[in-house]
Amino acid sequence: MPKNKGKGGKNRRRGKNENESEKRELLFKEDEQEYAQVTKMLGNGRLEAMCFDGVKRLCHIRGKLRKKVWINQGDIILVGLRDYQDTKADVIFKYTPDEARNLKTYGEFPESVRINDTVTFVEGDMDDEIEFDDYSSSDNEVDPVDAI
């Protein structure tokens, strides 16, 4: 068997993400940009996001963020709008929950936006109509499962 002559494997080359604790400057939206909340992860570097201008867009995670910044459902992101495709956008930046709370206090987001919650956009209240019957078994009845 060959001897190991290197200084480590791919985990050493990958390194540690040590810039997580640093405080970074808050990035506000500019022209042709919009804030959005991730509704669904689609895979292959794409996601579906509900922009705060009321349009649901298919967003593409750009190469600088791919595999470096993990984006989950419910995250607040900054997307760059395309002037030739209104239903598609590109993810430019992901906000931490603290940064998103700061932007909400500055009045950048609508008041209806929930920052910490994972968003499940279910049409209507589907579970309000579920009713359970009160069923009590008496001692002299044999449960079919117990009879096996």
Automatic annotation (TrEMBL):
Region entry Disordered, spans: 1-26
Keyword Protein biosynthesis: yes
Regions of compositional bias (Basic residues) in chain numbering: 1-15
Ranges of Basic and acidic residues composition bias in the record: 16-26
Entry-linked Pfam families: eIF-1a
Gene Ontology MF term list: RNA binding; translation initiation factor activity
Keywords, ordered alphabetically: Initiation factor, Protein biosynthesis
InterPro entries attached to this UniProt entry: NA-bd_OB-fold, RNA-binding_domain_S1_IF1, TIF_eIF-1A, TIF_eIF-1A_CS
Segments forming domain S1-like: 22-96
Keyword Protein biosynthesis: yes
PROSITE patterns xref list: IF1A, S1_IF1_TYPE
Matching NCBIfam families: eIF-1A (TIGR00523)
HAMAP family assigned: aIF_1A
Family: Belongs to the eIF-1A family.
Assembly and interaction partners: Component of the 43S pre-initiation complex (43S PIC), which is composed of the 40S ribosomal subunit, EIF1, eIF1A (EIF1AX), eIF3 complex, EIF5 and eIF2-GTP-initiator tRNA complex (eIF2 ternary complex). Interacts with EIF5; this interaction contributes to the maintenance of EIF1 within the open 43S PIC. Interacts through its C-terminal domain (CTD) with the CTD of EIF5B; from the location of the start codon by the 43S complex until the formation of the 80S complex.
Function text: Component of the 43S pre-initiation complex (43S PIC), which binds to the mRNA cap-proximal region, scans mRNA 5'-untranslated region, and locates the initiation codon. This protein enhances formation of the cap-proximal complex. Together with EIF1, facilitates scanning, start codon recognition, promotion of the assembly of 48S complex at the initiation codon (43S PIC becomes 48S PIC after the start codon is reached), and dissociation of aberrant complexes.
UniProt-recorded name of the protein: Eukaryotic translation initiation factor 4C
